[in-house]
Write a structure and sequence with these properties.
The protein is of the alpha/beta class. It has 13 helices and 13 strands. Bound molecules: nicotinamide-adenine-dinucleotide and zinc ion.
């Protein structure tokens, strides 16, 4: 078992990276004493895999369980799903001390966190992330969210969980494509601050893709440490530090939002975004060619795409321009200067961005 602490004064919490049968979760819950009743929010697929085991663990601690399914899609991060779940919670909330458990990927985590942040002005919740993306990224840091028809994550709150329990065994049932998607975020951490993590993934990519427990443990712990440190120093995205987590996401998001690219999942879209940002940095004479080659090569090793399919460049560019990356009319992006270091800049010629995006849409 490994533990990483997120230090945020009275909002501090541990991230447990375990490879067990929920024993470490049980131990922590006894100490945390969060309530008499746990409301588990999940979806039917994850419930079938891990719901019973979790309920049994809680019941042995004399914690009563209530389990609510949401649909298995981004659509669950909606106001209507939120109202539905809040209604169910309030109907059982009589003389009990309730806390919430997010059992799932980033969708379940974001929704549960937002319910916890707002029900009765805030109740305790814990994250049990079941995707690699959620273990290395979304379960840590307290960003909770709902989507609106006009855009993703437009409603939200910063609200930290009391515990993140990342059990490596839970991600072994993930489809390979989901594992690769999560690895894209781990590669991101390598490029932005941790050359050692980057080299580790380069060397061990085969074992990682084969879900070797000790390799997964290393990647999840290294990623958790980085995300925890960044969140500790910029909890509410006010100092600018948290911005570096957006590396690859500006162009990545544009590809995700532009019509016709729904074939890409998040990790795939940001891989293309990171490749494009690295190329932009190289074209501007900031990132040496040898580093660019390593960046491109790692995505190939992990079977992550470097190019999106040919399509409507105008739609991608307009999604790019609509995103929230403008400061005084200038485009703001995170660019790498070497593996392990990035910086935020507003001095990028738009023509260069256009050229590189076009090149990355040439599949
Ligand atoms: N809050 C944050 O800081 C943050 C950061 C990054 C992403 N996000 C959000 O996270 C969401 C994406 O999260 P995601 O990639 O985990 O997607 P997801 O939650 O949709 O999960 C992906 C798929 O994997 C399935 N699944 C989950 N666990 C499984 C398991 N153990 N075995 C088999 N299948 C399993 C899910 O049912 C789903 O079909 C987006 O909504 C995004 O906005 C939030
Ligand atoms: Zn991301």
């Amino acid at each position: 078992m490994n533990q990483v602490k997120v230090n945020l004064d009275d909002r501090s919490y541990p991230i447990i990276i375990a490879n067990d049968n929920f024993e470490h979760l049980a131990k922590k819950l006894v100490r945390l004493n969060l309530g008499t009743d746990a409301i588990i929010i999940t979806n039917s697929r994850i419930r079938a895999l891990y719901g019973k085991k979790l309920q049994k663990t809680l019941n042995t601690l004399k914690i009563a369980t209530h389990i609510f399914n949401v649909q298995d899609s981004e659509k669950s991060k909606s106001i209507s799903e939120y109202v539905k779940i809040i209604g169910k919670i309030s109907s059982i909330d009589t003389k009990k001390r309730l806390f919430l458990i997010a059992l799932g990927g980033g969708v379940v985590g974001d929704l549960t966190g937002f319910i916890a942040a707002t029900y009765k002005r805030g109740i305790a919740y814990i994250q049990i992330p079941t995707t690699l993306l959620a273990q290395v990224d979304s379960s840590i840091g307290g960003k909770t969210a709902l989507d609106l028809p006009s855009g993703k994550n437009l409603i939200g709150a910063f609200y930290q969980p009391k515990l993140v329990y990342s059990n490596i065994n839970l991600i072994k049932s993930l489809p390979a494509r989901q594992i690769r998607s999560g690895l894209a975020e781990a590669v991101k951490y390598g490029i932005i601050v941790d050359p050692k993590l980057f080299s580790y993934i380069e060397k061990n990519y085969k074992k990682i893709l084969d879900l070797d427990s000790s390799c997964l443990s290393y990647v999840i712990k290294a990623s958790s440490l980085i995300k925890a440190k960044i969140v500790e120093n910029d909890e509410r995205e006010t100092t600018g530090l948290r911005t570096i987590l957006n590396f690859g996401h500006t162009i990545g998001h544009a590809l995700e939002t532009a019509a016709g690219y729904s074939n890409l999942n998040h990790g795939e879209a940001i891989s293309i975004g990171m490749a494009a940002a690295a190329e932009i940095a190289h074209s501007m004479g900031i990132l040496p060619g040898i580093e660019l080659k390593r960046v491109m090569a790692i995505f190939k090793l992990l079977k992550l795409p470097l190019e999106a399919k040919k399509g409507d460049l105008k739609a991608v560019l307009s999604a790019f321009l609509r995103d929230k990356k403008f400061i005084n009319g200038r485009i703001r992006m995170v660019l790498p200067s070497k593996i392990g270091h990035v910086f935020v800049t507003e001095n990028i010629p738009y023509n260069l961005i256009k050229k590189i995006i076009k090149k990355r849409m040439a599949d």
